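User: Fold this; tokens only.

Assistant: Input:
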Amino acid sequence: MQGYDTLITRKNPSMFMFMLDCSASMSEHIVYNGIGMSKTEALGRIINTSLEEIKSRCRREDGYYDYFGLSVLGYGNDNVESLLDRLFPGKSIVSVNDIAHADVPKATYETIREYQGRTISTQVTVPELICPFSCGNTPMGIALAEAHDTVQEWIAAHPDSFPPVIFNITDGECTDVSEAVLLSMAERIRSLATSAGNVLLFNVHLSRDDSGRGVVFPYTKEGVAADDKTASLLFDMSSDLPEQFVPVKGGRRAKAMSYNSSMSELVKMINIGSVSVNNIL
């Protein structure tokens, strides 16, 4: 776990990739931040907000610095595609300056919460960079293959960078390859490395509600649901987290995964997984 304190510079930028399940089940209705919407819509809000926050971290007096490459893949309907392709055709990875200067409409998101007996409504406005879809099955296998090739290409161009961080976000089971193949593909991704360390693969399983009862960053398979096939599979697919992200506990490192997570817990995971990459020069 050495090297995860490597400085991030414009010469040696890091990379964030978001892999989004866009299968038909993501059209299911949920309540997020007090507002009724589909899982797809909630996920779009979260990723658009995350991209805006990453962009803001790269703002300097003389403009935006390209400290990160950014990629958003959507997989569903037996297909995988870049959800940024409508803005940046043919580019699997875009820069911070790309999104900072993109001519896109802004979306205003409302949050409703209860505080000390009062209902409080707040709003945030961010560029609507991605618009996820929801259709068909869950071809996670071809999505992981695409992620591997994209990240491998990035590492070849940035061999001394802080290792890329990947978030795979899904609400169901893979439909295009077997568990054994899926494990092998995840291992291939985790084995990719820069001189600073291996790629970090987060796997997030979404629940149907916003109850906040998900299992986040477990230390053992028993802690996540050892008798649940999907939970066990995602545990084995995920990276061990460096101490900079989540503290070691009982000599064990936490797994970069969650199971039955609410959308609110997803936000916390993305924050930990992205904000922990904070050693920007």
